Amino acid sequence: MEYRIADRGLAPSGEKKIRWAKQYMPVLRFLENRYGAARPLEGTVISACLHLEAKTACLLILLKELGAVVVAAGSNPLSTQDDICAALVENGVAVFSRHGMTVEEYFENVRSALAVGPNIIVDDGADLVATVHTEMKHLLPGIRGGSEETTSGVKRLKSMAAEGILAFPMISVNDAHSKYLFDNRYGTGQSVMDGLLRTTNMLVAGKTVVIAGYGWCGRGVAMRASAMGARVIVTELDPHRAFEALMDGYEVANMAEAAPRGDIFLTLTGNTKVIRREHFEVMKDGAVLGNAGHFDVEICKPDLGELSLSVEESRPGVQTYSMNDGRRIHLLGEGRLVNLACGDGHPIEIMDLSFALQLESAVYLAKNTLKPGLYDVPAEIDRAVMEAKLASLGISLDGMTPEQEAYMKSWVE
User: Fold this and answer.
1) pLDDT tens string 154-179
2) Contacts 24+ apart (CB under 8 A), 104-113
3) Rounded Cα–Cα distance for residues 113 and 101 (Å)
4) Which residues pair with 288 in a beta bridge?
5) Alpha carbon distances (Å) from 372 to 136, 140, 143
6) Helix axis angle, 379-392 relative to 348-367, nearest 10°?
7) Predicted local confidence at residue 242, as pLDDT
8) In this structure, are strands 328-332 and 318-323 parallel, antiparallel, or unpaired?
9) Number of C-beta neighbours around residue 190 at 10 A
10) What 3-state class would DSSP assign to 336?
């Protein structure tokens, strides 16, 4: 087995983290018991590009235990945990990643994860999909399909499908109810604040927090910031989302209006240059910037660099840009995903749901032949994941009586 990691000797530390995570992932354990003997992925080769931390390791190891050959690349240089990579290698998962890898190394690792010739792709940000379509087209005939974890990746896949170039089926895990209602809202809400607090040790109460984007992720972060005592300003492009933010009790403004007022800025849009030169020029001394979008493009780092006289790492994970007028602007995690670059990512119990969807999607693709295109997670899988989660908590649901079923199907009162 080929692999490229920082230090295989770190495996014992990674194993401890994985054991800790697995005890709080009852849905994955349920699927392990359900599929273990059948090994439905026997003979399947899976290439994954995911954030390589303990929760992800639980998924990758289980995919291998269900019969797959699993090769993984890290989807973010700062979210890769070297001890987790080592533990994965010890468990038979080929890994190509290290913490702090360069952009060139990152894409070389992506290519290495694909070189095995996958049948199924598990992606987070669609870099595997994009690379195989642009650089490694000879692998396309062998790919049955894949699944995509995040909003930014789905956006790319929609563009590819619209252009008619998506060569195999992709399942949008991100759009499943079990994903966006919980991962995007409660997972992002908690983990972004966790990354902010770990890195800065700041008080949130009494500060003005500017949330760029009021999708499901923005809703979650706004909810948590408000609960911690912050004054929240939401910036948005979509009028319906903006009005929803207003009805939820937040102030709504454009970024030009919010820039001189904010103490903390958090971007969650999936777009580029959301905070840029004209905003940096009017920000307060000590303003803190964090990004929770998949790619590090929402906060325009080139503009920030051009406006600054110097840059220093004032705390681990905090880059302080000193302006020529004496102001300081602090950027968290190099503008990368703040919840993973500055923390451990989403809570374990939340990722249990998302990774259960990823596993079920892989099994579904192994069993079914689909035409190229972008697909929703099958409704029965989405529902079953949530039922398994509720069952693990000892919660049972009502069922309809025959009379109620007949009533709901009838148009006659």
Assistant:
1) 999 999 999 999 999 999 999 999 98
2) 105/77, 106/73, 106/74, 106/77, 107/131, 109/4, 109/73, 109/74, 110/49, 110/73, 111/135, 111/136, 112/2, 112/4, 112/71, 112/73, 113/47, 113/48, 113/49, 113/71, 113/72, 113/73
3) 15
4) 264, 330
5) 17, 11, 10
6) 140
7) 98
8) antiparallel
9) 19
10) coil
| Residue 105 CB partners (closer than 8 Å, separation 6+) | 77, 98
DSSP structure string for 181-221: IIIIIIIHHHHHHHHHHHHH----TTSEEEEE--SHHHHHH
Tokens of 198: 């770990």
What is the DSSP-derived secondary structure letter of residue 299? B
For residue 12, which of 108, 109, 82, 99 has the smallest C-alpha distance?
82
Region 297-314 average pLDDT: 97
Q: In which residue are the tokens 């995570």 written?
A: 21
* pTM of the predicted model as reported, rounded to 2 decimal places: 0.89
Letter string b/e over residues 47-77, b meaning 16 or more CB atoms within 10 A of that residue's CB: bbbbbbbbbbbbbbbbbbbbbbbbbbbbbbb
Amino acid of residue 186 = Y
- For the chain, what is the total number of helices (H) and then of strands (E)? 18, 15
